[in-house]
Amino acid sequence: MILRHPTPSDAGPITKLHIHTWRIAYGPLVPAGTFDRLDPEPHLKRWTDRCRDEPENVVVCEETGRIVGFALLGAVRDTDLDRKHTIELYALYVDPDFWRKGIGRRLAEAAERLAVDRGFRTIVLWALKDNQRARLAYQRMGFALDPEQEKDAKFFGLNLREIRFTRALR
Question: Are 55 and 5 in contact (CB under 8 A)?
């Protein structure tokens, strides 16, 4: 297992993994057919830009030459938090064939090390409220549910509820 920053050539595999994982993880949470009209091109464009312009904010996990997971960090979007000392984990996705093998934890730890190296003290993330698998995984990784923070979010043209998790960094 190799953890590394992506190169521009990783944009396609990351996009495919991202969309595949959405289908598996969110499929039970959204109406049937939600992903049928999903156009991968805008996602590929975003990942191409990220891999070219800000690879230091992305960590990928490579297993036998294949990207099987990724973590994406960015500036915290919540106005109630100290932006100087708080960073957001925008995305943490692992190929469903590799769930429960510690890859998510390793990616989260790598993202946390990057955050600490940049002087951040806290990391937050948002998860779909009904995504029990993700909620349990984040709690096992040491993230605490922030019970006061819940919001509506637009995903795939749907209004879904998100909840915030937070973790103090070492």
Answer: yes
CA-closest candidate to residue 54, choices 107, 90, 83: 90
How far lies 32's CA from each of 19, 20, 27, 156, in Å?
A: 15, 15, 7, 12
Helix (H) or strand (E) holding 2: strand 2-4
User: Which secondary structure element, helix H or strand E, spans residue 40, and what is its range?
Assistant: helix 40-53
Q: 6-33, pLDDT tens digit by residue?
A: 999 999 999 999 999 999 998 888 888 8
Of 56, 41, 78, 67, nearest to 166 (Cα)?
78
β strands within 5-157, DSSP E:
58-63, 66-75, 86-94, 122-128, 144-155
Alpha carbon distance 83, 43 (integer Å): 27
Q: What is the pTM of this model?
A: 0.93
- Interacting residues of 108 by C-beta distance below 8 A, sequence separation 6+: 71, 89, 92, 141
The model's pLDDT over 35-65, given as tens digits with 9 standing for 90+, comes to 888 889 999 999 999 999 999 999 999 999 9
- Contact, 76 vs 164, CB < 8 A? no
